[in-house]
Amino acid sequence: MQHLLNPPQREAIHYLDGPLLVLAGAGSGKTRVITQKIAYLINQAGYKGTQIAAITFTNKAAREMQERVTPLLEGKSGKGLTVTTFHSLGLQILRQEAALLGYKPQFSILDASDSFKILSDILATTDKQLLRKTQWQISSWKNAFVSPDQAKALADEEMAHAAARVYQLYQQTLRAYQAVDFDDLIKVPVELFDQHSEMLEKWQRKLHYLLIDEYQDTNACQYKLIKQLTGLRGQFTAVGDDDQAIYGWRGADVENLRQLTTDFSKLKVIKLEQNYRSTVRILRAANQVIANNPKLFEKKLWSELGTGELLHVTATQSEEHEAETVVMKLQAHKFEHRTTYKDYAILYRSNHQARIIEKFLRNHKIPYTISGGSSFFDKAEIKDIISYLRLVANEDDDPAFIRAATTPKKGIGNTTLERLGEYASAHKMSLFAAAFEGGFQHDIGAKQLEDLLTFCRYIQTLQGRAVKDPANEVLNDLLTAIQYETYLYDGEEARAAETRWGNVIEFVSWLSKKGEGSTEYGNESEGKNLLELTQMVSLITMLEGREDSEPDAVKLSTLHASKGLEYGHVFLIGCEEGILPHTNSIDADQIEEERRLMYVGITRAQKSLNITWCKKRKRAGEMQACEPSRFIAELPKDDVKHFGNPFNGPDQVLSKDYGKSKMANIKAMLASKPT
DNA sequence: ATTCCGGCTCCAAGG
DNA sequence: GAGCCGGAAT
C-alpha cells in the first residue's frame, strides 16, 4: 500500500492551525496519516516526543502505531512519545495522582468477572440476567459520567433507583478494595481534572498535541478527557469514520463526531475517500449497504484497484454445512489462486460461531489463529497467578485474596473464609488484615488458623521480594511454593494440564521479559518491578508480540475485532436475521449499528468476499429455520453470484462423520454450479 | 452424603 | 470452552 500521499492525506498531515477532524473511510490510509503526522510534528514542526500523545482504543492498534512511527523519527527528539490506549493513559494519570484521590499507588484493576462477583454479593443473587443488566447499567452510568448520587436523583422508577443504590454500594466496595474497574480508569481522571484545575494544567502543559484514533468510538467520558487535555489550545487531530462506529453498546456515541463541529467552531474537516484496499466490486457493495443508513457526513469511497471478482453469497443447510462449505471453498480457492493461508480471514458476529469453524479447520489440518473472544488473560490458570500478584501488590484486594487463598487448595475452606469475612466487614478491614487480628483468630480451629497464617505470611515475604528481586525469579519461586504444576496435573487429564501449564510458563516468561525493560522504544515497561507490572497486566487482554514472523494461518475474528485490519480474501459467515443483525439489536431497534458491522466486514476484504448463511440453525436446543440477513438483499445485484438454493433445497442428512470426508467434498464443491 | 463425571446448554461485541 | 445439572460412583 505504498503510494505517494494523496492531496487530502498530505493536507491532514500538515494542518496545524487548530483542531482537525479527519473523516477516514475504510482502507483510506488512516494509520499512515497518523504516523506521518507524528513524524511531521517531531521532525519538522519542532514538537518534542514528550509533548505528543496518540490515543487508540486497543493495545494492538497502539503497538502497531508505535512500530510504524518509530522508523520515521529522526534523532532523539522523538523520545518519550506517548502512544497508548485510553485506558492505559487513564491508568498513567491515576497512578501519578493516586495519593490525591485517596488510592495507594498499587491499587488493583478489576476485570468484568470481578465486578460481576461483587455485584452478585451485593444483590445476593445468582440471577445472571439481572447481574448482567445491573453491570451494564452501572457501566453506562460511568461512561455517561453519572455519579451514584446523580443516578439516584435521576432514577424515575423503582428499578432504576434500586440499581443506583447498588451502584453506590459497588463503588464503596471498590474503594474498600483499593480497586478501580475499567470504566473508572477514564472516569476518575476526568473527575480529578474537574476538581483540581492545577492537576489539569499540569497535564495540559505536558501534552501539546493529541491524536485520537477511531474517534467515532469515544464515549462521553473519553470525549470529556480529550476536551480537558486539549484545553484552550485545541491542538488535536481526531481520525474517525462514522460508518465504522460499532461500539455504541459500550457507550460510544457517534454524536461525538458532530459534537466536535459545535464544540470547536474552528474545526477543520478533511475527508479521505480514496480506498487503497479493495476492488471496485467490494467497495460498491460496501457503499450500497451503508447507503441505507442516514448520513452524518457525506462520503463515497472509490478505488483504482480494478473491478475484481464477483462476491459470492452461499446459502447452506446448517452450521455444520456452513463450516464445511467455508473450509472447502477456502481450500479450493487457495489451490486455484496459489495463495497462502494467511491471505484468508473468517469473520463472524459472535464468538461462539468460531467454535464449529475451528472444529472443521482442525479436522482438515488447516492452521488458524483466533483473535477476539475469550482471551489468554481470561484463562483460569492465568487468573490464578495474577490473583497472587494482585494480592501482593495490594493486600486490600479481597477478590484476589479469596482466589489466591483457595487456589490451589491449602486448607483454607469456606468456613474459615466466612468467619474471616464476617470479622473483616464488622471491623471495616481487608480479609488480609483481619487474619492477623486476635479478635478473629480464636474464632476458628487451630489447624485452620495455622494454614491461614502460613498463607498470609507467605504473601508478606513475597511483598518484600517483589520490589527488589527480578520478576522471573519471584514468579518461579511462587509457582514452586504453591506447587501449581502439581495442582494442574492433579485436577485434570494430562493433556489439558499440559496446555494450562504451558500457558503459565508462557505468561511467566512474557512477564519476565516485560520486567527486564528491554523494549526497543524504552516505553512503559522499562525496568519495572513485579508490582508495577501487575497493573499493566490487568489492562492487557491478548498476548502480543510472540511471533515476529506471522505464521501461515487462517485468521478467525469477530467483526468487532477485525476493524482496522485487512485480508486478501474474506469469508463473512452467519449472515442471517438474528445473527447479523443480532436479535437483541433488532429488538432494540439498533439496525444501523449492525449495518455498520456488515460494512466493516465487507471492507476488510481486498480481493474476494464470500458471504454465507444457514437455512437452519440449532437454537435453544432445536433446529430452527433462518432467514438470510436483510443486508444480503442490500448488496448490488450485478456484483453478486449466488450459490446453494436459498429457498427450499433438500435437507441434507448429516452423518456422524460429517466433518471428516475430504476429497469427496472438495470435488462436490468444485463441481457445484451457481443456481 | 459427598464427589465425580459426562453430557447439555449457554452464547453480543472489548479494554 | 465453561458452568451446570443429574445420575453414578465412592
The Cα radius of gyration reads 27 Å
Percentage of β-strand residues: 5-15%
Strand order of the largest sheet: 13-14-12-15-16-11-19
Head-to-tail CA distance between termini: 37 Å
Poorly predicted sequence stretches spanning 5 or more consecutive residues = 518-525, 648-675
Principal-axes geometry comes out as: globular
Structural class: alpha/beta
* Tally of DSSP β-strands: 19
Counted by DSSP, the helix tally is 30
Percent helix, as a range, is 40-55%
Biggest sheet record = 7 strands, parallel
Query: What is the overall pLDDT average?
Result: 86
Summarize the structure.
The protein is an alpha/beta fold and 675 residues long. It contains 30 helices and 19 strands. The chain starts with 6 loop residues before the first helix and ends with a helix.
Please tell me about this protein's structure.
The chain has 675 residues and is of the alpha/beta class. The structure holds a DNA duplex (15 and 10 nucleotides).
